[in-house]
Design brief:
With 455 residues, the protein is an alpha+beta fold. It contains 17 helices and 20 strands. Helix 14 (420-427) crosses helix 17 (448-454). 51% of the residues are buried.
Length: 455
């Protein structure tokens, strides 16, 4: 592996570029016409325009990406997260062209990237999972209604081929089902080039705990512990932290060991995250496997000292896990990440536009900021509105909260609105401080008037 094509954009592209450079490899970034001025386009060894702004014509255009690989002579492709990162057909096409797809083998993206087959596989290995359907026919609403009735309302519609909260819609009664189904299918098709949907039983007020793993192609699996991703708005993660607070460490460690054993048994490889729902009464319940790098990987890197992106590249190239991570990781301190979105913090409407001012806090111990933007860039309306990830790592959770709060207050962003005022209110809330946030708890801890004051 000598030259890697980075098939993503924004903060993901910048992060992967940093790892490629650290490994001494050559880099190629692709970009749409809307992203031509983003800083990483100039920083890479090579850059290739792959089409106009709409994702379907650029970042989701498999032919354009494969053509770019052939033109620049790249021998590997890193898909990042989102877009085609969990598209098994694309992974197979990359492999068939003689290139390395930097992710799990395409068979695992097929088996586990599809949420319904993943659930069936994990249930066969003894994991508890809530009720779920298989992929349902898009145009047979009679079958969809029957499936919802069999599960029992409320149900949750989910895309089979992607994540990130996109296309996930709760439905509380039969009258709302058809409209929600059409909306979810359209969202999934636009974001993942795959409109397929399924449903699962809606679990009220769970916590969202996910477990990060690395694996080689020799049957070895390593746990990088867990992250708490419960602070969400409409199933879109806003704040994540590691380790998970207010859960018995022995319980969490036992689940991590069990999941590692299952992944080892089935021969899973390279990188993966097992997402679970947790309630104090019901314990852990399997949700899905993300067969890709996660947006929130940085907090796991902070508490373990493992560079997950470099490890992912080396494992995909065929190295053994023991050479990639030489010492068994331990958790050191606490890390919290906030996702800064270009959106109105009161009405939560997208706020694309020109970054007239984009000033980030200066370097300081324990602070890391990931962004693909710079002052003078335009935040496009065509893509996810995240403009930065702010990560604070400290010796304790309380210190990490204080450091993250300070960093967010020091950011100067003008020309667009951001959700920073809302994040600050969550960080100072009693419920977040207690470490007991649930996936539906954000709205209960934010006040419109208080957010307006912070804004």
């Amino acid at each position: 592996m000598k030259k890697i094509l980075i098939a993503n954009r924004g903060a993901a592209a910048m992060r992967i570029l940093r790892a490629v450079r650290a490994l001494g490899l050559q880099s190629v970034v692709v970009y749409s016409e809307a992203d031509a001025d983003l800083p990483y386009v100039r920083q890479a060894d090579e850059s290739v325009c792959i089409g106009p702004a709409p994702a379907r014509d650029s970042y989701l255009n498999q032919d354009a990406l494969l053509d770019a690989m052939a033109r620049c002579g790249a021998d590997a492709l890193h898909p990042g997260y989102g877009f085609l990162s969990e598209n098994a057909q694309f992974a197979r096409r990359v492999e068939a062209a003689g290139h390395c797809f930097i992710g799990p083998s395409s068979k695992w993206i097929d088996a586990l990237g599809n949420k319904t087959s993943a659930r069936a596989l994990m249930q066969r290995h003894g994991l508890q999972a809530g009720g779920s359907t298989g992929i349902l026919p898009r145009d047979d609403m009679v079958a969809v209604h029957r499936a919802a009735e069999a599960l029992g309302y409320p149900v949750l519609i989910k895309p089979a081929g992607g994540g990130g909260g996109i296309g996930m819609i709760p439905v509380h009664d039969p009258q709302s089902l058809s409209g929600c189904w059409e909306r979810a299918s359209a969202m999934a098709g636009k974001a993942f080039a795959n409109p397929a949907l399924y449903m699962e039983r809606f679990v009220p007020s769970p916590r969202h705990i996910e477990f990060q793993f690395l694996a080689d192609r020799f049957g070895n699996v390593l746990s990088l512990f867990e992250r708490d991703c419960s602070t969400q708005r409409r199933y879109q993660k806003v704040i994540e932290e590691a380790p998970a607070p207010a859960i018995d460490r022995e319980v969490v460690a036992a689940m991590a060991d069990r999941l590692a054993a299952i992944l080892g048994e089935i021969g899973y490889d390279v990188i993966g995250t097992v997402e679970m729902l947790y309630t104090p009464d019901g314990g852990f319940s399997f949700l899905e496997v993300n067969t890709r790098l996660q947006v929130e990987h940085a907090i796991s890197e902070a508490v373990t000292g493992v560079d997950i992106v470099q490890a992912q590249i080396r494992l995909a190239a065929g190295e053994k896990l023991s050479t990639v991570v030489s010492k068994k990781p331990v958790v050191t301190g606490h890390a919290i990440e906030a996702r800064v979105y270009a959106e109105d913090p009161v009405r939560f409407l997208p706020s694309p536009g020109l970054l007239k001012t984009f000033e980030l806090p200066g370097p300081r111990p324990g602070l890391r900021i990931e962004t693909g933007h710079a002052q003078g860039n335009r935040v496009s309306s065509h893509y996810d509105p995240m403009v930065a990830k702010v990560i604070a790592h400290a010796s304790s959770r309380e210190a990490a909260i204080l450091e993250l709060t300070s960093a967010l207050k020091d950011m100067r962003v003008e020309g667009i609105k951001t959700n920073i005022p809302m994040i600050l209110q969550v960080l100072r809330s009693d419920r977040f401080r207690a470490g007991t946030m649930t996936v539906d708890g954000l709205q209960a801890v934010i006040s419109t008037e208080s957010v307006k004051e912070l804004a």
